[in-house]
Structure formats: C-alpha cells, structure tokens
Amino acid sequence: QVQLVESGGGLVQAGGSLSLSCAASGRTFSSYAMGWFRQAPGKEREFVAAISRSGYSTYYADSVKGRFTISRDNAKNTVYLQMNSLKPEDTAVYYCAAGRTNFSGRIYRTAYEYDTWGQGTQVTVSS
Question: Which of 71, 41, 42 is nearest to 55 (CA)?
C-alpha cells in the first residue's frame, strides 16, 4: 500500500495560481488511480479531479473544469494538480487519494473508491 504526502498549498490572491504535488511511497504507484479532493470548513469533502493509472484519462468536477489540470509522473511516483484562475471558493484543505485498480484506464470519482489518503494541504484564496 502506498503512503501519500501532499505539498504546495499556501495563500494566493484571487486569479492567481498554485501547483500541488502528492508524492507516493512504494514501488506500486503505477497500480493506482489517483484523485484530488477538497474540504472547506463546515462542508463535506468533494471531488476535484481524477486521473487513471496510465495518465491518459482524466476527469474533473464542473467547478474546476478549464481551470485545474491533474497530471502524474509514474517515474517520480507523483501526482500533480495545477490550479489556475483561483477563486475564493476554492479555499479548502486539498487531499490526494489513491485507489488500486487492475485497469489502466479506470477513473474513480467518489471518495469511497479510494483506499489511501494523504494528510492534506491548505489552500487559501483571498479576494
């Protein structure tokens, strides 16, 4: 099982950009579909973006489509989330998650499909 560590969060003004990284331990990173979720204060955790094992398939929440980009580098055991045109409503703790799958093109869109989570990184967007 992999362990996940997020980094790259911080404070940014509206309209700015941030890039999050999630580093995975272990030698089986390419066996996992990966995703990003976020949780704002007083709200439930919500799906942000997902990527398949191969990296060829991606999926985004409507709220971030066209602004955020998920990618992965299996050689570096890392998944990324590039966030552009940030809005105050993007403020949340961002979590990466891993879900093991035998299918290279599988995308997981719900939290229960993921079995490993990072500790989260805070993203704050000021208006």
Answer: 71
Q: What is the pLDDT of residue 1?
A: 82
Name every residue whose Cβ is closer than 8 Å to that of residue 27 and which is 6 or more positions away in sequence. Answer: none
Backbone φ and ψ of 111, nearest 5°: -60, -35
Tens digit of pLDDT for each residue in 29-65?
Answer: 999 999 999 999 999 999 999 999 999 999 999 999 9
